[in-house]
Amino acid sequence: MNIGIVCYPTFGGSGVVATELAKGLAQRGHSVHILSYDRPARLDTFQTNISYHEVNMNTYPLFEYPPYDLALANQMANLIEYEKIDVLHVHYAIPHATSAYLAKQILGEKAAHVPLITTLHGTDITIVGSDPSYKSVVDFSINQSDGVTAVSKYLRDETYERFDIKKEIEVIPNFIDLDRFKKSNKNHFKRAICPNGEKVVVHVSNFREVKRVPEVVTTFDYILKNDIDAKLLLVGDGPDRQRAEQRCRELGICNHVRFLGKQDQVEEVLSIADLFLIPSGSETFGLAALEAMSCSVPVVSSNIGGLPEVNIHGETGYLCALDDTECMGRYSVDILSNPKLHKRMAKNARKRAEQFEMSTIIETYEEYYEKCKKEL
Ligand code: GMT
């Protein structure tokens, strides 16, 4: 098939999933065209059957807000007309599903055979999409899609709850490359960071408020106060970094915390991790948790959103009520101080990750594309 994939280029989950899907489809012989305003972070190597199309936007003095949605729709129409794509798959509803609808309207009959598939990822529904300033447009655009998928059961149910959706939403979960995300020997790295054999606690995110990074620091402080010699590695960057740094200073634990910034090879950091913390206030799936689990790292998380569909309480880690840093701290101490428990959970975490194996989920997308094409 000739497939158009539209996504955000950032380190955020939807861009990562879209790019990994594009790479997986290309490896299976499809031609893939990626459309975005910048090169996606995970599109880091040349692949013969992937073409990247950057959305060109000429600004004009009149525009206080350059109309990206229109430039995107224009380029989507070109993709359908000249690259002859068979399927247009957009990741994140805003504005991608709306621009895609417009592109199809522009082409009329010429685009009638091309299904528009929208994959919902999270904040496009739970936060931004539900904002009254976008809600009607999101509602309309989802209903105009020929196929709609959500990355978890939670997100599917939440979408039905918040919007007036007449379409059937198919749950196709996020996936993981088990060969890339596996525990590998990084002893030199571990020795450099933890010269005294300290335990390693890791958090990876885009440091948005919803990720509760200061709470990661508070939980880590509980771990230290309970006599666990440990280091906290924080991977990523974003709006809450300063608040997290401030929390370290207030607690006087800055010498135990390393801010590593954005990293391309997260699996290397995860390879030396003993525990992964993800106390998010909203999380429709939690791809970061799945990446950690695939590297055999037990997870302590909040019990909200799609996280319980990934992290199984008492098996792959523990779940705590939102904002309960004491509960997260207690469970973290349990795991870090009990080698037998740690070993069992690490093994279970990897086993659980195997259920989200990449090629199986990519096949599910292929079947879904075929189904949507047939139904047109
Ligand atoms: O988490 C973010 O801030 C990024 C966001 C995105 O849309 O790029 O991630 C969402 O999609 C990911 C991939 O499907 C999910 O794993 C994340 O749980 C979800 N984030 C939220 O719901 C906050």
Kindly describe this structure.
Residues 11-180 form the Glycosyltransferase subfamily 4-like N-terminal domain. InterPro entries: Glyco_trans_1, Glyco_trans_4-like_N, Glycosyltransferase_grp1, Thiol_BshA. This is N-acetyl-alpha-D-glucosaminyl L-malate synthase BshA. It comes from Fodinibius salicampi. The structure is a single chain. This protein has 376 residues and is of the alpha/beta class. It folds into two domains: 2-174 and 357-375, Rossmann fold (3-Layer(aba) Sandwich), CATH 3.40.50.2000; 187-354, Glycogen Phosphorylase B (Rossmann fold, 3-Layer(aba) Sandwich), CATH 3.40.50.2000. 43% of the residues lie in helices and 16% in strands. It has 15 helices and 13 strands. It has a seven-stranded parallel beta sheet, sandwiched between helices. The chain has a six-stranded parallel beta sheet with strand order 10-9-8-11-12-13, with helices on both faces. Helix 2 packs across helix 3 (96-107), helix 8 packs parallel to helix 9 and helix 13 crosses helix 14. Ligand GMT is lined by residues 12-15, 17, 92, 121-123, 151, 174, 206, 208, 210, 282-287.
